Amino acid sequence: MLFNSPEFLFLFLPVVLFGYVRVIRQGPALPLAWLAVASVFFYGWWNPRYVGLLLASVIFNYTVGSALSRMRGAHRKKAVLLLFLGVSADLFLLGFYKYANFFLSTLTGLGLVGGHDALDTVLPHGISFFTFTQIAFLVDVYQGKA
Question: How many other β-carbons are positioned within 10 Å of the β-carbon of residue 64?
């Protein structure tokens, strides 16, 4: 669904705005939850197969961020290691989806790997954006800003 498509303009956007207006007086948690669910639905409209990837990435980074926020003072070295592991996992995920087929076809073309077809992966929309946003979140938590 594109932002200028009729589905977005005349169905999705009005439903989300109406729902938001209905829950805005319920405190900050419910409107945020409503927008989060609407965002996941919007993302899944393109390919529902990658909603699980997005949610797993968010849950992973939230867990790492929560652990980082509890580490202060004496646990500085552990926090650096945890930050490194979290960022590395994010970059591995991004690299896998962006470059796995490229490396596999290159190795096959050079004759270093024989008879392998391309992996059945499609580049998820927005993977770079949500990966780098989550890396920034982890760094902010490490620095005590979030």
Answer: 22
